[in-house]
Amino acid sequence: MSHPRNHDQEARIVGALERQHPDPKAFRTLSAPVWRSGALSEKDKHLIAVAIAQITRCAFCIEHHAALARKTGATRDEALAFSYLSAVLEALGSSDVSIEAGQLVTVDEAAVAGKPIADARLAFARQVFGNDLLEPGLRWLAAAAIAYAQSNEANRQLFHRQALANGQPEAALDEAYALVVVLRAGAVYAHTLHVVDAFEDAPDA
């Protein structure tokens, strides 16, 4: 049975593992450089991480990076704006996406084509992608990273091109994709907390 803990307590357990065992240390070696400011600021990296962690379904990662984003000056509204990008891209599923005059256009899947939900979904997508809380280049960059986390290569390439066209440097996109690599591993890595719990709860032989 897992122990009831708050996030700070869980983070301390993970930190102790990283000091004590070689594999967690290796994860820290992979992860730590990715969060330093570069072409993307620490704040933007942690905001993008919140969106990616929603795709990888890692509650620990969402809470962790939301807290770090807040510490670096992010607002709740900014974090939600990134989060809803993930919601849109999940809702779009396998529909074919293109961009015309700066707006998303979809060719809907057979299951929903011509139905009211397809029009409602597109309206939702356009609202979120038009949110003026996010600078356009950063919005497209985050969308490219989210698409990479979804293993949707067509969307990744589409959004990558849009990010470049809106002033994001290639280096910033490289950094965003590095976040995905770390957060994919981190989503599984966070579950080591449950492994530790299982052995702590085991009766002595």
TrEMBL record:
GO molecular function: peroxiredoxin activity
UniProt-listed Pfam families: CMD
Chain ranges of the Carboxymuconolactone decarboxylase-like domain: 26-88
UniProt superkingdom: Bacteria
Record flagged with keyword Oxidoreductase: yes
InterPro entries: AhpD-like, AhpD_core, CMD-like
Signal peptide: none
Keyword field contains Oxidoreductase: yes
Keywords tagged on the record: Oxidoreductase, Peroxidase
PANTHER family reported for this sequence: ALKYL HYDROPEROXIDE REDUCTASE AHPD, BLR3452 PROTEIN
Protein name: Alkylhydroperoxidase AhpD family core domain-containing protein
The species this protein was found in: Chitinasiproducens palmae
